[in-house]
Structure formats: structure tokens, C-alpha cells
Description:
- By secondary structure, the chain is an alpha/beta fold.
- It has helices at residues 28-41, 77-92, 103-115, 117-131, 197-212, 245-252, 255-262, 273-285, 345-351, 365-377, 381-401, 421-436, 451-463, and strands at 46-53, 59-66, 96-100, 136-139, 160-166, 170-177, 180-188, 220-225, 228-230, 233-236, 268-272, 289-294, 298-303, 409-413, 445-447.
- It has two domains: 28-139; 150-480, Nucleotidyltransferase, domain 5.
- α2 packs across α3 (103-115), α3 (103-115) packs across α4 (117-131) and α8 packs across α13 (451-463).
Amino acid sequence: MSTKVESSSYALPTPAVPAPLDPLFRPAALARRAFERRARETGHPVHVRFALEQSAGAASRFAVELMPEGHPDAHANLPMLERLVKLALWSRGGYRISLDAPARLVEELRAHFRDTPIGRFDSEIVGQSVYGHPIEVVAAHELPPERSTTTELGGHLDGCRIGFDLGGSDRKVAAIIDGRVVWSEETEWDPYYQPDPQYHWDGIMDSLRRAAEHLPRIDAIGGSAAGVYVDNQVKFASLFRGVAPDAFEKRVRNIFRDLKHAWHDVPFDVANDGDVTALMGSMSLGGGVLGIALGTSTAGGFVTADGRITPWLNEIAFVPVDYRPDAPRDEWSGDRGCIVQYLSQQAVGRLHTPAGIELPHAMPLPAKLKEVQALMKIGDERARKIYETVGVYLGYALPEFATVYDYGHVLLLGRGTSGPGGDIIMDTAREVLRVDFPELAPKIDLRMPGEQDKRHGQAIAAASLPELGETPILRAAQAH
């Protein structure tokens, strides 16, 4: 089964604000809006509803209007439904999809997760790895009620703390005393394809020990990293994608629990890097924050209006934002149009050539980004076009996120926003909202932190995750 949206009579809408270096970009938010409008204009739209069920009775509900059977564009119903399901799946999480739809659509979506490489990837990672159950599609006229729980996250700044953030191209660490950063550092590393977990262990321990040298004692350690973590257990994480399954179970699944023990069981918490980004925003902006970090990948997190987090997945790197059939392909999942190719260093890797900036093919993405940032600092128009293009991507992604997140603030950070290019990204995104989504534009407060916090803010916010225990550790150098 294909998930392409293609029709002799239905054309994907062209954005009013075009991407300078990517004129074929066709935003998901515009495509679904136009498709539903045309479905309603038939006078007989097919009303489809589904509930995405998580654990402990939690469920998220969504709806979409599709074409009636026999309409020339009806063959696009399945791709439109599947793309919406994927948006919900990677943002909210879940393993059971209760679907109120015609029987043919139910069976076709079921076959997608069972028989196609892209569907099986989603089922294995989200369903099996996170929830312990492959994704299942169940026909249902009565859907589970919308229900979610929330919990507090971080905000503890008392005592002597270490915070770390593990990215795909660098790891950051900060030493903090009563909320004041006394030292921070960024170290390049290359964790994605390392088969030996000792590489990851040694790198993290090196950063923690270096931070400990700047503190009189260690009261707590907090960290952030891409992936899903439950009680400091790794459910899945791109940082360890090169580790074989048996080594993952033996050395990675409990790596953060083992690190906690190595540091004498000091209070130690690890969270998804996107949630920590949102936490950073909520500490200064209040609630209703969508955090987006543009790094090696794209991290997302969400803090509710009352300043709490949900048990949602928030792995937005795999969210589809471009519906053209030949959109850039994600090298891990094999899917096309996923946001990781649009809001990360990978976007720079794609766009520098059409911008006219020649860089060696083998040059690592972080090095390419540095070259583009250096050009941006001297006002190079080619570099500016790259940032404007990324800004267009962001502007059209934000309405798509509004489908699954009730946010008023957006906090951008990460290596990809550093330097003057970050302001261009924001200004361009605001223009997209003003032109194509005027109803949303006044409701979204789009911000970036200061330059230092863009690079190290997640490590600092991560340090606030653990609550202090009763007995502080006297010297971190004693870690074994």
C-alpha cells in the first residue's frame, strides 16, 4: 500500500509563502485543510473518527472528513487518514487505534501497519518498544473517551546539581549551584552508529566528572536526551541505534539506572529532550509551551497551561509535514516528509547545495552548519536563503502541531537556531502564520532564549529534574 497523495483532479495546495530553496514543498497543514474543505463541498463527506489508546486508560481522540466513495479523489482518503494517524501517533503515543470508519478504510489502515516498511517501523518503535504491544487497528463505533493524566516536571534549582543534554553531535553539561550556572561545556561526539555501549557510557561519565570538578558536592543529577524514558529506563532512543538488540538489553536499557548507582544513588532523573525544552520555556513563560529543539534531529516537548507534562510521546522528528510524494526521505524510518528533514541540521545538509554553497559531501552535518553560520554572520545572502527556507518550514509546521497540542508559547532552541539565522527563522515563520493562518498568528508567542541558553539551556533545565534527597553526596569525584 502506498501513502502517496496523488490524484488527477486533486492538487496539493501551494503555500502562499514559498520556501526559497524548496519550491516544491507542500505543507501538510494546507493539504489536509483543503482536502477536508473539498470533502464538505461534495455535500456527503465521510466523517471518520479515531481514538489513540495509550496505557492506564489514557486516550486521545481525533476526527477528519474524507471524500465519499466514488469521488475522483476518494483514493486519497487512506493517505490523508494515515498521515493524520501518524501525526497523532508520534506526538501523543499509543498502540491501539479504535477507528470509526468504513470497513475498507479500517482494513487498509490495518494492512499499512502490518505489511508496509513504514507502517512496521511505526508499529515496532512506538507500539512494541514503548508500549510492549504492536500497533493494532480496531473497528469501533463507540470510541474510548478522551482522557490523559499530567504530572509535575522539574523546576528544582536548590543545591549543587549537574545537568546534561545528550545530542546526536554533541553532549552538553552544566554545573549549577542554587540555580546559578558556575560552569558549562559542550563536547562533540558521534553516538548514533557506535555498536559498543561503552562509548556512550564513557562519554557521559566524562562529562559528569568534568562538571563535578566545579562543585563542592553533588546533590542531584538531571539529564535530557532524544528518546523515550520511563523511570530512567531507555524504551527507545536514536542515540543507541547502532547497538545490537542483545547489547541494548544488557547494557543500554538500564544505562541511566547504572549511572545513578555509579554516582552513589544520588537523585538522578532523565527525560525526553523535548520535554526538557518545554520545561525550560515554562520556567520563564508560564504554561502552554511547545518546545522545539533544532539539533542533529528535531526534539519536541509540551507543558500544559497549568505547567504540567503529559505522558505523551512527543517524538516529533517523525511527524510528517510535507505531503508531496517525492519529499525528502528520513534515513532511519524510510518515510518521506518527516520534520527531521526540515527542522534540524539535516535541513542545512539538504539546502546548502541549492543555495549555491559548495561543501564536501563527506563533511559532517555539524561542520556544515558551522560553515553556514559563519557565512550568515558576514551577511551572505545564500546562507540567509537557507534560514528563510527553514523559517517557512517552521511556519507551516506550527499549525500542524496545533492539531495535537494546545499551546500559546513556542520556544525554539538548539544548535540550528544559533547566531543571526535564528531570528530569520522566527521572522519568516511569523510571516507564514500572518499570511496563511491569520486565525492562529495572534495566538502564538514565538520565542528563542539568549544565545548561551540556546546551546546549553536544556542541560540547565535538565539539572532541575530531580528533587533533592535527604543526604547529599560529598564529592562526585568518588563516582566509580
